[in-house]
Design goal:
Elements lengths: L4 H21 L4 E2 L2 H5 L3 E7 L5 E10 L4 E10 L5 E3 L6 E6 L5 E6 L6 E6 L6 E2 L8 E5 L5 E8 L6 H13 L13 E2 L2 E2 L4 E8 L7 E2 L19 E3 L5 E6 L12 E6 L6 E2 L7 E6 L5 E6 L11 E6 L5 E3 L8 E6 L5 E6 L7 E5 L7 E4 L3 E7 L8 E8 L2 E9 L6 E2 L5 H4 L2 E2 L4 E6 L5 E7 L10 E7 L17 H5 L4 E6 L8 H5 L8 H16 L3 E11 L1 H10 L7 E5 L14 H7 L8 H6 L16 E6 L8 H12 L4 E6 L9 H19 L1
Parallel strand pairs: 1-32, 35-36, 35-37, 37-38, 38-39, 39-40
Antiparallel strand pairs: 2-3, 3-4, 4-5, 6-7, 7-8, 8-9, 10-11, 11-14, 12-13, 14-15, 16-17, 17-18, 18-19, 20-21, 21-22, 22-23, 24-25, 25-26, 26-27, 28-29, 29-30, 30-31, 33-34, 34-36
Length: 688
């Protein structure tokens, strides 16, 4: 590749300096702090080149002064060596390769709205490709190299971009800012739906024509606003059509249905491929063009049914279920170059292995990357000499980095080390896993992290972390919002229990939280605490705290109303009043887990609401920190206000923190800094 020699030389110098820094800092380690964590570089979106020789990826680093993440596109060779920074704007993401490997398309908001840019690897500045007033998202490149697909939020009845622009300008000038809704879903996560829909567009890669809307007039989003992503849009190998996922049900707030559709690249009639009541997504064409692999949830109105690997025969129009006997949830699908095998990841007992299976019913999936947490898979092109894949790998002691391996799982190597110099200065302990008997004698897995400079002869306070979902799991993966290593650093032993309802342990285990939110899951948590107290004599049972967010916040609220064993509780975005929680946006979530609506099954909404038990102990006992975001539409922040009011009215030491510019998660760097400080100060006040 011409024009890269200078970049290589500069990167090599950086690598040499990085190695020298590590050597100098080996002897001076300290417990990790928020300041250490916020300096770390966030690797994401690895995309391997068609010939398998390079990986482009996004690297983001928090900028405390600007109060945002600064993101650029980087590249590294799959044989190792120097990393190369390709863009400088600090507002770039989503790299995708041209089929000839000479150009990278990416998204950038460097000029305001997000647009598609093209960067030639032979040198020169990135060139603007799209100029839409409604921005561009989720960029894809056709296999023949001629076309780029992207999505853009438009008014369905607008025939061109001038119409969209004019309508947006009129809304901006209008002094009335009222939200008006006539159907569900009318808001989602942190945004209101104001009449726009995400449509699928294509544009010639050479910019010779304006973008064309392939879904004109569609009153649905591509991909679905509720649950979609880049994997839900893909080109056929001959570049003649695009397969995508969409939700066409009118009552989107209660539907988890999603179906596969195809549309010709030249435009024309949209064809529906699947019609089952669950969600079908992540379509990937086989290299020979005969099949589309996709994953499907078969249970309607339930977002945590496990994903099956499905195979759609393009000739017969029939689908087959390939993994009904595999009791894990398949994700991130990919094909082998010969179209004979399918790859996928699946959560499994705190890890996320990579599996391979023959593309036929009854085939047994086999792990080819085991006992690690892997994600964001990308495969070299069918014509590449070496069959190579790139992916992210992470752990509780290592932020995500780019790795590569042969597609049979051999020759695994780490390609990037963006955080090595910081990690070399930190004292962190890896997780230890153990199993115990939870409710009804069921085996439950947990992880503990010991504090830095651990001494078994001492007694340590216990911090019990309660995960959200409720259908998720504590995994052996790095995180920035709830980082167990940062929590452990001041001298706490951190306990994470994958109680009933967690994913990665089979569908029955996940389903057992349905209409039982404060039942077996609560018993699992308390049994896990008791087991840990017996197993680890260095835990001080008189100094314990519990903390969680979302459903974890619910469990914190539930604990506050059901026992007084903890010295402190922290509830972030917790569900407190189940009837009031019906103001959430994804109503299927409440209606499934409570097995009805507040009027059809009021008993469940009453039984499983912490507010119901607010006075049963006479009054709350445990000092509680309550945190929420005002823009949280998943768990409306009034849930936290209700909880805090009850605590205050009963004279319980408590503190309320409301972030007016955050949603369900605290994402802005300065807000995150305040969140962590408040969190750790509360623990220190009651556990030290």
């Amino acid at each position: 590749m011409k024009g890269l020699s200078l970049r290589c030389a500069l990167a090599s110098a950086l690598v040499w300096a990085w190695g020298f820094t590590i050597s100098a800092q080996q002897a001076a380690k300290h417990p990790i702090t928020f300041d250490d964590m916020i300096k770390m570089h966030r690797v994401a979106e690895p995309q391997i080149s068609p010939d398998g020789k390079w990986v482009a990826y996004t690297l983001a680093t928090p900028d405390m002064d600007a109060n945002r993440n600064v993101a650029n596109i980087w590249m590294v060779s799959t044989s190792g060596g120097a990393r190369q920074q390709l863009t400088q704007s600090g507002r770039d993401s989503s790299p995708v390769w041209s089929p000839d490997g000479k150009t990278i398309a990416f998204l950038s908001s460097r000029s305001g709205e997000s647009q598609v840019y093209l960067l030639s690897l032979e040198g020169g500045e990135a060139q603007l490709l799209t100029k839409r007033s409604t921005s561009a998202d989720l960029v894809k490149w056709s296999p023949d190299g001629r076309t780029i697909a992207f999505t853009s939020p438009v008014y369905p009845d607008c025939k061109d971009d001038d119409c969209n622009k004019k309508r947006d300008e009129e809304k901006e000038k209008n002094q009335v800012k009222a939200h008006v809704a006539e159907h569900l879903l009318y808001r989602h996560w942190t945004h209101w739906n104001e009449g726009k829909r995400s449509h699928l567009f294509v544009v010639p890669a050479d910019g010779s024509a304006a973008p064309r809307d392939l879904t004109p007039g569609a009153d649905y989003d591509v991909p679905p606003d509720e649950r979609g992503g880049p994997s839900d849009i893909n080109f056929s190998p001959d570049s003649k059509e695009i397969c995508f996922t969409a939700v066409t049900d009118k009552m989107e707030a209660i539907s988890t249905n999603g179906d596969l559709f195809t549309v010709p690249l030249a435009g024309g009639e949209i064809q529906q491929l699947t019609k089952q009541p669950g969600f079908d997504g992540g379509p990937v064409y086989s290299p020979d063009g005969k099949y589309i692999a996709y994953h499907a949830q078969l249970a309607p109105e339930y977002e945590s049914d496990r994903w099956r690997v499905m195979l759609y025969d393009r000739r017969t129009g029939k689908s087959e279920n390939l993994t009904e006997g595999f009791d894990r949830s398949a994700d991130e699908l990919g094909w082998s170059a010969d179209s004979k095998s399918i790859y996928f990841t699946a959560e499994n007992e705190t890890q996320k292995p990579l599996y391979e299976m023959a593309a036929r019913p009854g085939a047994e999936p086999k792990k080819i990357l085991a006992d690690t947490y892997n994600s964001a898979l990308s495969f070299s092109g069918p014509g590449s000499t070496e069959k190579t894949m790139a992916f992210e790998r992470t752990s509780l002691t290592m932020p995500a980095e780019v790795f590569a391996a042969n597609t049979d799982g051999s020759n695994v190597r780490q390609l990037t080390h963006h955080n090595a110099s910081i990690l070399a200065t930190l004292e962190m302990n890896p997780q230890e896993t153990f199993w115990f008997e939870g409710a009804e004698g069921t085996k439950v897995q947990a992880m503990v992290i010991r504090p830095p400079n651990f001494n078994a002869s001492k007694k340590y306070p216990l911090l019990v972390l309660l995960h959200g979902g409720p259908q998720t799991m504590w995994s052996n993966a790095w995180g920035y919002r709830w980082n167990p290593e940062v929590f452990s650093a001041p001298g706490y032993l951190t306990l994470m229990i994958n109680r009933r309802g967690s994913t990665g342990y089979g569908q029955k285990f996940t389903d057992e939280i349905t209409n039982d939110w404060g039942g077996k899951a609560y018993v699992d948590v308390m049994d896990g605490v008791d087991y840990a107290l017996k197993k680890f004599p260095f835990i001080d049972g008189a100094r314990m705290a519990a903390a969680g967010g979302s459903y974890g916040g619910y469990m914190a609220d539930w604990i506050a109303t059901h026992n007084g064993r903890f010295k402190a509780i922290i509830s972030h975005a917790g569900v407190y009043d189940k009837v009031a929680m019906y103001a959430t946006e994804e109503l299927w979530f409440e209606e499934h887990d409570m097995q009805g609506t507040p009027w059809s099954n009021p008993e469940s909404y009453h039984k499983w609401a912490p507010v119901t038990y607010a006075g049963e102990l006479g009054k709350f006992k445990t000092p509680t920190l309550v945190i929420c975001g005002e823009r949280d539409y998943r768990v409306p922040y009034t849930q936290s206000l209700e909880f805090f009011s009850a605590l205050q009215r009963q004279g319980v030491p408590s503190k309320l923190v409301v972030f007016p510019d955050e949603g369900h998660w605290v994402l802005k760097p300065q807000n995150a800094q305040f969140w962590y400080k408040t969190f750790l100060d509360w623990l220190a006040l009651y556990l030290k």
